[in-house]
């Protein structure tokens, strides 16, 4: 683990020693409209099927069908997510009539250690999936805070490469 990926003792987010945010995630109603609206700011885009099968969502196993569009602002990845069906935090967001900034992502070496580190600050995982031994994602929320935190544990060379 690097120093930026090792949880530190602290009572607030600022003192945790989190690595830099590497992605800002937005939930949108239409990927097609988003392409038109933001191509000049964040393009060129890459698109993928972001569907997730058998993730733990609010304590139960759930599938979700998502379409994802990736852009950039310098080194910062900008992710646009269109929920199509199934259960996930993105569905909740859309069903509450919202569209816009949804989460901030941090790439970490040990997602579970970071989940434990944020627990005393009121953060709890609501969506979690371990794809391989070295690849995990988790969305965390805390009461009264509309912005989610995502941890992504994945080697730079991709899942299963460590």
Features of the shown structure:
alpha+beta, 2,3-Dihydroxybiphenyl 1,2-Dioxygenase, domain 1, 3 helices, eight-stranded mixed beta barrel, 162 residues
Considering the protein shown, what is the CATH homologous superfamily?
2,3-Dihydroxybiphenyl 1,2-Dioxygenase, domain 1
Class by alpha and beta content: alpha+beta
Question: What is the helix tally?
Answer: 3
The rounded distance between the terminal residues' Cα atoms is: 13 Å
Give the overall average pLDDT. 91
Second CATH tier, the architecture: Roll
CA gyration radius, whole angstroms: 16 Å
The largest pleated sheet is described as: 8 strands, mixed, barrel
Could you tell me the CATH topology label.
2,3-Dihydroxybiphenyl 1,2-Dioxygenase, domain 1
What's the total count of β strands?
9
Write structural notes for this entry.
By secondary structure, this protein is α+β, with helices and mostly antiparallel strands. The protein has three helices and nine strands; from the N terminus they run E-H-E-E-E-E-H-E-H-E-E-E. An eight-stranded mixed beta barrel has the order 1-5-4-3-7-8-9-6. A hairpin with a 6-residue loop joins strand 8 and strand 9. The protein is globular, with a radius of gyration of 16 Å.
Q: How are the SSEs ordered, and which strands pair?
A:
Blueprint: E1 21-28, H1 31-42, E2 46-49, E3 52-57, E4 60-73, E5 76-86, H2 89-95, E6 100-107, H3 111-118, E7 124-132, E8 135-141, E9 148-153
Parallel strand pairs: 1-5, 6-9
Antiparallel strand pairs: 1-6, 2-4, 3-4, 3-7, 4-5, 7-8, 8-9
């Amino acid at each position: 683990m690097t120093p930026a990926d090792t949880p530190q003792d602290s009572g607030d987010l600022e003192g945790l020693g989190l690595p830099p945010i590497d992605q800002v995630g937005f939930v949108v109603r239409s990927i097609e409209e988003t392409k038109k609206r933001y191509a000049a700011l964040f393009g060129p885009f890459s698109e993928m099927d972001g569907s997730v099968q058998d993730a733990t969502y609010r304590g139960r196993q759930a599938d979700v069908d998502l379409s994802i569009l990736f852009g950039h602002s310098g080194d910062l990845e900008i992710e646009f997510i269109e929920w199509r069906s199934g259960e996930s935090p993105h569905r909740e967001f859309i069903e509450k009539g919202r569209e816009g900034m949804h989460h901030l992502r941090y790439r970490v070496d040990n997602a579970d250690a970071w989940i434990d580190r944020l627990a005393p600050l009121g953060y709890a995982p609501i969506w979690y999936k371990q794809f391989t031994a070295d690849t995990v994602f988790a969305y965390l929320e805390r009461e009264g805070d509309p912005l989610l935190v995502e941890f992504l544990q994945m080697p730079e060379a991709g899942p299963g490469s460590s």
